[in-house]
Amino acid sequence: MSLKHFHIVFICASMALMTFLGVWGYKMGRMGMPTYGLLACGLAGFGASLVYLGWFVRRYRYLP
User: Fold this and answer.
1) What is the pTM (predicted TM-score) of this model?
2) Segment among 18-22, 33-37, 49-53 with least mean pLDDT
3) How far apart (Å, rounded) are the C-alpha atoms in residues 21 and 62?
4) How confident is the model at residue 55 (pLDDT cuts 50, 70, 90)?
5) How many angstroms separate the CA atoms of 3 and 6, rounded?
6) Contacts (Cβ under 8 Å, ≥6 apart) of 36
7) % of the chain with per-residue pLDDT over 70
8) Exposure pattern of 3-34 as b/e (b: 16+ CB <10 Å)?
9) Given CA atoms 51, 54, 60, 64 in this order, what sign does their dihedral have?
10) CA–CA separation, 24 vs 39, rounded Å?
11) H-run or E-run covering 24
């Protein structure tokens, strides 16, 4: 596996963790615990990871 492919896998793993964090924050908030900050951080992290993944794929499309 090349470094480029590993980087893409690592970004996708980070997106999965941000999704888990967002869902966890949402469920904790529904139970009455004030943890909507987790939801906000999860959504912000997922969005930033998605933007970065798009930039990375466009920038390094022609690398081997």
Assistant:
1) 0.81
2) 33-37
3) 33
4) very high
5) 5
6) 25, 29
7) 97
8) eeeeebeebeebbeebeebbeebbeeeeeeee
9) positive
10) 7
11) helix 3-30
